[in-house]
Amino acid sequence: MQNKRLSTIKNITLLALMLALTIIFCFVPVQFGTITLALMILPTIILSQVASFKTSLAMGVIMGVVNYIAWFTTKAASPVAPIFQNPIVCIVPRILIAVVCYFTRYGLQKIVYFAKIKRICNYEYVREFAYENTQFVNAGTENSTNFESANIIENGNGNERFSHKTGSEKSGIPHRKNNEKSKLILTNQLVYALSAALGVVTNTLFVAIFTLIFFNGTSIAQNTVVTVEYVLAWFGVNFAVEVVSFSLLTPPIVLALKAARLA
Fold first, then answer.
1. Which residues, in sequence order, are bridge partners of residue 32?
2. Residue 83 pLDDT > 80, yes or no?
3. How far apart are CA 62 and CA 91, in angstroms?
């Protein structure tokens, strides 16, 4: 009961933190030269890596609504404001970010998990097979083994031989565990990066599609006509920068949240 309560508190805390960042990024655009990154989607991408589907979906909906409000307030003077004042263009892609990121991460982690189980099962099968064959060989050489054991005891160096072997086996266990842990961390980092990249692709793709569906050939601010070329030029540079930067930012942030036991 206490563990469930603690988990609920952590989820609420993490959701509140990501929501606060989303509000800041929605109403205070972060611009690097001529490039304006859609940083308001980053908290949703991060939350989708560690939270349940319901929490991730709720975050996507909230982010879409907050961003929609921003286009009527602080971003109303933007030349592209008429496009994002359409709720389908503004809200639906944000919700899809949460869905795609969550299921990408969930699916890839399941694949990794089942691959690990299969590898363990194969290892156990090989070890059992080797053990059975060893028993068969030992059964045929019992007399020679007993004779060798007697010589070892007589010479007084049996303990040294067996303890040395046991020590070697024991020393390999922590090393193997460390390797497994390092591989797991690296694998999770790749999963988070790929999930973040697909989240950015989803956002850009559906915003572009809905923009062309509702505004293709329409004149917006400063007599600019929305065309395929305009949309490609508009999203081209920002899209490339967002894919790279968000894929690099997401894994360390997620690992930091896990290290702080917030996820």
1. 35
2. yes
3. 9
Looking at residue 35, what is its pLDDT?
A: 74
CATH 1.10.1760.20 assigned to domain 2-111+182-259? The reply is yes
Q: How far apart are CA 128 and CA 124, in angstroms?
A: 6
- C-alpha closest to that of 40 among 81, 68, 1, 7: 68
Residues 14 and 43: their CA atoms lie apart, in Å, by 10
Window from 76-90, 95-109, 154-168, 239-253 with minimum mean pLDDT: 154-168
Cβ contacts of 124 within 8 Å, gap of 6 or more: none
Q: Which two tokens stand for residue 190?
A: 């790749």
41 or 156: which leads in pLDDT? 41
Nearest to 198 by CA among 133, 81, 105: 105
| Residue 82, CB-side half-sphere exposure with 13 Å CA sphere | 13
